[in-house]
Design brief:
496 residues; OB fold (Dihydrolipoamide Acetyltransferase, E2P); Rossmann fold; globular; EC 2.1.1.190; TRAM_dom; U5_MeTrfase_fam
């Protein structure tokens, strides 16, 4: 790599740095030590991967092909972490981060990285995961779109370029804002990188502006009324989080006050003052969470004023969204993600489709437009209630939903004669439950469409499905979260 020093890229200690503390045996650096190192890659969290005397350092704020001066912040036997003090050799892909609190806020990791370069890196991250973890052979080209070439036996997996955004800012339709206390009283924003300290903020460049206005109004009124912020250390205080949603298609807005207890002082005044400041507000809800846990929401939710849901649209499908509904936060990219899933399902109108992890029915209802019958299964009862409501809302009558674990419900469906031609899965970040993988292999659908939010667990599960008789044909990455280290994918598998 260009820019390496004569020491072979081993890095060097910088004299004059503050005294390092207690190094580990066999580790060439100590906490507080300032070193110079070359950056050879990025982690999945967007940290630069550097090497110093053969030791790996994950360097916050550094980019590939840079040489940086970095201060070591933590060490372990296999790797340590550091923060960039000075960039000595600057990457051509480095950009000035537009956010004024980017260096302290933990919401984004890649604003300093050119957006086109982010997309290239995310694609390579997917390829590396498939090759390293999934042991899959990936095509060096992007495919030519020819059906016969893509389904040839023994063909390589095609990983397409990442579908990015023309305007990769202001895309989030939901904000979960932690509340804390500062010198001026109640504050709210994001957690500082690597800590539970709240960074106060009134503007976020990846949030829709409507959400910013709603959060500002809630904080302002809370300060005016003297509402105490929750303190995680003592367990005292009332307001823990403010969760806001903005439905881009309808303009409707919802606010959820997450509180440490049921009673809210001055609740009528609070609601009245928020409504005065925020046009389009149709729902104010409360969620009660008294547990000493970082989980945002508890089990009890009630409507304080207005409607229990707001309505939004993806494509031509309308959705009712309740306070605890999972609904993708980037509406523009969500439609592209779901269109890719429908495309890979290869539906002719005669198929039976099962959607595991169906949530509130978002993908299920897209599939229903093109299939004979679709079945959605989800372990969360409230989500299934929302899914059934959304099917009625869109007059979709060929969709059926059931509560339960997919690996339990799907064999029961099979015993009733329901045999899937296609199975679609959209699991959480930890990937598919091993029992579900086994169930899919037993049901032997002709095609599996795997929607993933984590390339590592996707690669792991694709390996299991390949070993069970399936072949991964294509993977389409979609950039749902620009300027972060996250990338979503849709994988298309056929029974071999």
């Amino acid at each position: 790599m260009s820019g390496r020093k004569s020491n072979g890229g081993r890095g060097r200690h910088v004299s004059g740095s503050r005294a390092p503390v207690a190094a580990l045996a066999g580790v060439p650096v100590a906490v507080g030590q300032v070193v110079e190192c070359d950056i050879i890659g990025l982690t999945h969290d967007g940290e630069g991967v550097g090497r110093y005397e053969g030791y790996t350092l994950f360097v916050r704020g550094a980019l590939p092909d840079e040489r940086v001066r970095a201060e070591v912040s933590s060490i372990g036997k296999s790797f340590g972490r550091a923060r960039t003090v000075k960039v000595l050799k600057v990457s051509s892909d480095r950009r000035e981060a537009p956010c004024p609190i980017y260096d302290s806020c933990g919401g984004c990791q890649l604003q300093h990285f050119d957006y086109a370069a982010q997309l290239r890196w995310k694609r390579q991250h997917v390829i590396s995961s498939l090759e390293r973890i999934g042991k899959l052979k990936v095509s060096a080209d992007d495919g030519d779109g020819d059906e016969s070439s893509r389904t040839t036996e023994h063909s390589l997996v095609v990983v397409h370029p990442v579908i990015g955004m023309d305007k990769p800012w202001r895309y989030r339709n939901k904000a979960q804002v932690p509340i804390g206390s500062g010198e001026a009283g109640l504050i709210g924003g994001f957690y500082e990188q690597g800590s539970n300290d709240v960074v106060d903020m009134d503007a976020c460049l990846i949030q829709q502006e409507e959400n910013e206005a709603l959060v500002r109004a809630v904080k302002s009124v809370a300060r005016e009324l003297g509402i105490p912020a929750y303190n995680r250390a003592t367990g005292r205080g009332l307001l823990r989080h403010v969760v806001v949603r903005h439905a881009q298609a309808t303009g409707q807005r919802m606010v959820v006050l997450v509180t440490n207890g049921l009673d809210i002082p001055y609740v009528d005044e609070w609601i009245g003052l928020i409504r005065e400041q925020v046009p389009g507000l149709v729902s104010v809800c409360q969620n009660v969470n008294t547990a000493a846990t970082p989980v945002v929401m508890g089990d009890v939710t009630r409507v304080l004023w207005g409607e229990e849901v707001i309505y939004d649209e993806i494509g031509d499908i309308r959705f009712a969204i309740s306070p605890r509904s999972f609904f993708q936060v980037n509406p523009v990219q969500t439609e592209r993600l779901y269109r890719a899933a429908v495309d890979y399902a290869r539906l002719t109108g005669e198929e039976t489709v099962i959607d595991a992890y169906c949530g509130i029915g978002t993908i299920t209802l897209f599939l229903a437009r093109y299939a004979r019958r679709v079945y959605g299964v989800e372990i969360i009862p409230e989500a299934i209630e929302d899914a059934r409501r959304n099917a009625l809302l869109n007059d979709i009558r060929n969709a059926e939903f059931e509560v339960g674990a997919a690996e339990v419900v799907m064999p029961r469906w099979q015993s009733k004669g329901i045999t899937p031609d296609v199975i679609v899965v959209d699991p959480p970040r930890k990937g598919c439950d091993p029992a579900l993988i086994a169930t899919m292999l037993e049901l032997k659908p002709a095609r599996i469409v795997y929607v993933s939010c984590d390339p590592s667990t996707l690669a792991r599960d694709l390996r299991l499905l390949e070993d069970g008789g399936y072949r991964t044909v294509e993977v389409q990455p979609v950039d749902m979260f620009p300027h972060t280290g996250h990338v979503e994918c849709v994988a298309w598998l056929v029974r071999d």
